[in-house]
């Protein structure tokens, strides 16, 4: 630590009161230690709009990029929720389990997908009260923490949307991040307090587990996954022919398929055998043996990559791991290290890393959907990593028991890594300073939709007796002033507004330097800090002054007086103003302290600061390049989600017509009760349309393969795979439309017909085009 900073940081152990915060309706001083004041002064002194060097421009670009990522992440979250909603509603419609009055609601939901835009709030008075309410919620996260434990599972997604992407939506801003983590501490502590069994901790599908999963989907988590896993996963996807299936029954069935494709005749091996019989088959064992070795090698490489990424893991995720370890030790003092690590691994692997390995396309780590073999390999790798992190065996899938050696070999490595994840400092002192700076800002704004405001208002009212039992509680005062919560507005009216946040109980701090001056820092300390900051500003604005003042010597020989004089006589009026001010400040310092000593310290610190800023510029540019890739991937995912919604509009309309639920243009209700088909398609035609995404049929036999599709009744289809010289189909598959929709909902990209893989999305489009539209005509 530099000598001058050491002095500043040790001015006094006493804290100074900077603002008043209210806790449960009672005023309580919020304090910032003098240890934070040097950094706080630097922030205040360097906040100068006239500095516009390359670093400032890069920092501005980075801030704008982070803001776009935060905003787009929220849009994707909303679209994903809409997709999940429509998946379930369309499935109900297909199964004739949706009431007639619900159909119009679903159609309206689809029609309103393009809501948003800037809006206005109808009542200025309520707008101010809402601004006070949301400042209270943001700055005192215990309220939200309690609320998340009180809401139902059906309400949690809406609340999480508002919390993760609006109230704390600036995902790269330290104050909002630290406040959000404070909320997690509240929620996790309550979860541990209420737990009755160690084995059930953090594993059930609860609002808390949903919160933790949603948190990992924020920008920093997505950046980590892309930087760490993307290359490893893409390398595996390049080996499309690498079949690593180790389930003996599936291996045996594939043997039969391979034999029939090779010979063109039915295989003589017995069918319908048990798992145990398949495991005992010599040829199956010969196939599986080398695959086990390859799988353990691949999983080991993934594990090494993850362990090496320790320093890249976002601070918030590591801090949550730290809380899990700390709470476990307090709640279960007899728990051993392996049990504690299993809980940490349950969060880090189960809810963060493994979902990205299993479905990399959903996390924007790859382009397109993985083909069958790599997809299965990724699933097996994820299972191995999960069992390693959970310290469990493969009892539910006996065929994977041979992989227990991987768990035994690597358990010490994973335990060390999971413990190392927890080794991060706390943020409480930094949060104090951030809260202080927030109070000094003239405007804190929240970009929030009307329905987010009304929904949060409604939830707070429902649970007000628990959240704010006292009539003097500030939260209750706000809610009483607001009255009943307005109803949700239609989607096309759900505009976003910029809600100004403020506290009616706290006095904003408008003059940071004056507030610091009221502390126990001496006038000489303040003058020194201000002078150093001004030197840095001038040299950032006019770097040539540094070269002029050294006369070709080392930077350590900066001539402070020469820089001040050169700035005072520059052509730029803003630089002249600083130069004149700096000249006067140097004179004041000269009168207070020994000139030679203060010049030596000042030169050293200014030089170090300029070196630091140069390194910082490189780091900022590197971060920009990384985040630009993340932003592109997020935009691509947004486009994919929008295409899904467009497809759903067509599915819904066609299915409703086919089911006789809507009237066609001619006025007749859709009947669709008679069988349709068969319709014939060649292998080449379906391959050209991208419907066949993978084929095990040899190239020289594909011209003899064709498909037929029949619809014996609405919503039911029979897909047959035929060989020209065989009377009967090679195979037939009965399929319901809702089966396909369910596969799509579960993230299954392909439909497995043994010999070929068909695209789920494109099969749906083909069925719509071939049957529903023709039936409608």
TrEMBL record:
<dbReference type="InterPro" id="IPR001936">
    <property type="entry name" value="RasGAP_dom"/>
</dbReference>
<keyword id="KW-0175">Coiled coil</keyword>
<dbReference type="Pfam" id="PF03836">
    <property type="entry name" value="RasGAP_C"/>
</dbReference>
<feature type="domain" description="Ras-GAP">
    <location>
        <begin position="175"/>
        <end position="390"/>
    </location>
</feature>
<protein>
    <recommendedName>
        <fullName>Ras-GAP domain-containing protein</fullName>
    </recommendedName>
</protein>
<dbReference type="GO" id="GO:0005938">
    <property type="term" value="C:cell cortex"/>
</dbReference>
<dbReference type="GO" id="GO:0046580">
    <property type="term" value="P:negative regulation of Ras protein signal transduction"/>
</dbReference>
<dbReference type="GO" id="GO:0005096">
    <property type="term" value="F:GTPase activator activity"/>
</dbReference>
<dbReference type="InterPro" id="IPR000593">
    <property type="entry name" value="RasGAP_C"/>
</dbReference>
<dbReference type="InterPro" id="IPR008936">
    <property type="entry name" value="Rho_GTPase_activation_prot"/>
</dbReference>
<feature type="coiled-coil region">
    <location>
        <begin position="48"/>
        <end position="75"/>
    </location>
</feature>
<dbReference type="Pfam" id="PF00616">
    <property type="entry name" value="RasGAP"/>
</dbReference>
